[in-house]
Model the fold of this input.
Amino acid sequence: MLLRVRAAVAQLAAGLGAQPPAEPRGGGAGAGRGSPPPAAFCRPAFLQLTPEELRRADDHTGRAVQSPRDSRCRLPWSTGYAEVINAGKSQHNEDQACCEVVFVEQRSREGSGEKGFYFHYWALFDGHAGSGAAVMASERLHLHICEQLRDLVEILQDPSPPPICLPPDTRTGSADPNQVSYAEDGGEVPNDAVPRFHLEKAVSHESLVIGAIENAFKHMDDQIEQERASQHLAGGCCALAAIYLMGKFYVANAGDSRAIIIRNGEIIPMSREFTPETERQRLQFLALLRPELLGKEFTHLEFPRRIQPKELGKKMLYRDQNMNGWAYKKIEEDDLKFPLIFGEGKKARMMATIGVTRGLGDHDLKVFSSNIHIKPFLSCFPEVRVYDLTQYEHCPDDVLVLGTDGLWDVTNDKEVAGVVMEVLTSYEPNDPCRYTMVAQELVVRSRGVLKERGWRLANDKLGSGDDISVFVIPLGGPGNYT
Amino acid sequence: MLLRVRAAVAQLAAGLGAQPPAEPRGGGAGAGRGSPPPAAFCRPAFLQLTPEELRRADDHTGRAVQSPRDSRCRLPWSTGYAEVINAGKSQHNEDQACCEVVFVEQRSREGSGEKGFYFHYWALFDGHAGSGAAVMASERLHLHICEQLRDLVEILQDPSPPPICLPPDTRTGSADPNQVSYAEDGGEVPNDAVPRFHLEKAVSHESLVIGAIENAFKHMDDQIEQERASQHLAGGCCALAAIYLMGKFYVANAGDSRAIIIRNGEIIPMSREFTPETERQRLQFLALLRPELLGKEFTHLEFPRRIQPKELGKKMLYRDQNMNGWAYKKIEEDDLKFPLIFGEGKKARMMATIGVTRGLGDHDLKVFSSNIHIKPFLSCFPEVRVYDLTQYEHCPDDVLVLGTDGLWDVTNDKEVAGVVMEVLTSYEPNDPCRYTMVAQELVVRSRGVLKERGWRLANDKLGSGDDISVFVIPLGGPGNYT
Done:
């Protein structure tokens, strides 16, 4: 399997400047796309689309489902992937995807022959208001993760607890206990004499990886900010990434994509969505503390609907940053402003502008015809959930599914699990195509079929008109493929 | 059963001034304690302790367990209750408790013969740094809840969705649809013509009750603030309250007390604890946005231990308000300040001062020998969880257990469930004493037995030296008792 995967020694250019990554991402010779021209239409490199295929993938009318083809571009672990373009809501498919095996080389003293480890990486990026952020994130996020992990190579491979403090020399991950542990009273105590100072908090290896992923998202966002002018990067994107490292999956989510594990028919949510509704209290709290961020247009209070001037003095339901329930308040002048959070479900918007509250990019996004910036309310930090693959026996039908909201808008965990089990049953357990078949079926069922009244699902409800992208990652076979 | 319960028509004095409640809380004639002198030692009225019994309850050496006695003061629903004083950490028992049946009278036009409903109420208050806040909250919180519910009497009894907007007249809960609903375009549309305007958010009856409870906590906190000088109210308290209203339990928690339901042997957590650890990110976010609240003494960053000046320039693990994982940063001058959150588990403290981050009171609390106030970081708002009693068939062994941290510090959900099932099995299902026996056993097992080396549990570990208070509320019999 590895023959078809580039185990790239990923290195970000020093200073995270405007250079393309030292190694284009995997997928075979000729597939790298380099630095695309601004807002160029592109699809994931691993699809290896010919110009003709690219045109077909870009067709809103046919909405042909795209997958890697067996012979040319099998993904690690026989991962299944499928995608389809939207029904016309944007010119091109604004989803992007990346699948890589990345080698993390220990930051060396001399740059020669150092230790390291691999991680596997799958990610979906759901762009909005332009494709630039999603394209750049799909090319670089894994390199930022690699960069963050480079200082941890020795620490993660050492079974003893991570050192709390390291010498200033950044070029070593030395675990010499005499150098790295100090007792509270100022005396130096080797680790083996006092295993853990009683006022010292235990920090796990796992939480170092989580911290590395969190900071990688932040650096990715910073890079988009710095290069957005020179690279003409427009828009923003949700980011959902799965990292397999030393027996554990780390699923990092910033936005409204979604990941679930299906194990022996059981559903294990591996992410939650970040929207104006789920993050209401964080946003209201920020707006209360920094009212200048609202201009004079918005109120941090939430109301179930717009208030009209003639309703002044009446009592209306509201909730503030402290409340989960609703209560009545007398309507005052200030309450006539537009609510910071407004709308319900998929229509919920922050400052009447955006429906997701975490992600990358969006540095220039403003409220329509105003000078009010959205970015201060958006968080680029993901929530990272961990799944320990070594804790369970996995069979070939156990999978991790990653999907953009195009998938989840018209289906749910249970239906997805049903499709997964149904499709996998009809292929031999050792057929490497079976996960691609699942991904395709998931995309087709969410897209629906074009009828007179638009794209329709089997139950005649409206299909998803959004871009749809899905990874189906088998959990049963990592040992065979790495 | 109701014969022994005061179905108080609870009314807070207008303006929530310094007057005692119009009706002292229930428990039978003569049990009201009125306005206690500052920091007076008192126990829950429903215990009806004689002066001699009160002295015995106040004895740190004997630590006798207190419960209502059958003949004089049975609690609604045969609720079990038991408490014990601490092992000497404070002069008196700083826990307080309240159990009431409260009548909510609709706010009337004339004050005559109006509609209303009852709610059942159980609450525990775990005081710190003085008893004043806990005593006052135990006397008043249910009256504040009652006050908040008074405007909702008609609305909650009307099965149609709550009106979004009410006429300014506070004296009516009128549900006349022509008066209360307006469409977005400015035209008035009666409720029955347009059931719910499509840009209008649905608000449930349940969420109105949650909002009422949340605001009642806020008003309780405001009252403590206003009266703390005149009433010499010292300290603060955690508050855990269970309200049974129209078939549902609302469990409201602000602090580190804990509630669980045990149903058919299954454990259902009904609260979570609010501590510097569980609320770290909220506290760090506030500190970041309002650094002046930290004086110049604290940093909003968290470190696993104190940093020493000589470590400047080295790299240390940290996390900020965005992170769940840990990462290394170069130590700078500012990092030498004391971390906002420090310590682990029961020893975690905010600004080296307090181990709970929600509750009532504490308006004067400052960091030791400084002018830095703690209160801005504390939230008086509870988290409210709802349990619908009508969704399940309950047997006499199904209970809701409320306990202060004195209970939970030395035990866990599973052990408590074990004791509950063990004790209930040894009493007839219709024995009204059985829930009191459970409460007593839970208290005794957490307190332990006095041995040469202090209070010891059955496993010889140290027993809880804290005040311990426990309610055991049967879920199987509400219909029989109301």
Notes: Residues 91 and 295 of chain A are 32 Å apart (CA to CA). The longest strand of chain A covers residues 116-128.
